[in-house]
Amino acid sequence: MAYFEHEGCTLHYEEYGQGEPLVLLHGLGSSCQDWEYQVPELARQYRVILLDVRGHGRSDKPRERYSIAGFSADLLALLEHLNTGPVHLAGLSMGGMIGFQFAVDHPHGLRSLCIVNSAPEVKLRSRDDYWQWFKRWSLARLLSLETIGKGLAARLFPKPEQAELRRKMAERWARNDKRAYLASFDAIVGWGVQERLGQIRCPTLVISADHDYTPIQLKQRYVALIPQARLAVIEDSRHATPLDQPRLFNQTLLQFLATASTTSQGSLSSC
């Protein structure tokens, strides 16, 4: 368990293994704990770095407005603190948004990028967009975190054999600080870097669950905007793919990283 400070906020991070640095970023309302099925396998080959995003897990939860750009700045500060040089970066959901932001702001800081069940923008354009977001915004404020956690757990892990995953998620979600959770929720809406995706030059893998919140077609559209990107679809999975399909997820990520490591050596040495 380790900590560092950035702009008056104490942030928690963890490190495992040795090798090329690989950062894993969790989603909204989550923490380092949600990579529990990845760390043992990935740390055999990589220096795995986990960060509790500001407002989450063991990191401080300052009473301020949060932003995806601010989360990205925290990540940059951590990498400078650890003197990692360019890293491989994998982000789930909101962690993927932070990954997109980091990739366009600091392209030379990445060896590769893996985006899991995420998107490069959350813009409200239609009347239905505004209505759907208003419903989510209202429920997030009206319901307790315990209720939200149980509802999400049931939606993400609906199978009878996933009872333990449902229990874990509901329990972890209830530990969130509600004010920080809502500030992070608000940081997402209106954010976007889709118009800058062409600036991402590192090898990029977009992983989509076949039953994610957003359709595969949406991922196909933004993958086409990234020069070195490809899409991988994991079947029988929902939004929390690293938890509900850990074996397939780890296999897919490791295969990509092996190729990306070889590709990035040439590009890094020429920088």
Automatic annotation (TrEMBL):
Domain AB hydrolase-1: start-end pairs: 21-244
Hydrolase keyword on record: yes
Keywords: Hydrolase
InterPro entries in alphabetical order: AB_hydrolase_1, AB_hydrolase_fold, AB_hydrolase_sf
GO molecular function: hydrolase activity
Domain of life: Bacteria
Alphabetical list of Pfam families matching this protein: Abhydrolase_1
PANTHER family in UniProt: AB HYDROLASE SUPERFAMILY PROTEIN YCLE (PTHR43798:SF31), MONOACYLGLYCEROL LIPASE (PTHR43798)
Identification of the protein by name: Alpha/beta fold hydrolase
Organism: Pseudomonas qingdaonensis
Lineage, opening ranks: Bacteria, Pseudomonadati, Pseudomonadota, Gammaproteobacteria, Pseudomonadales
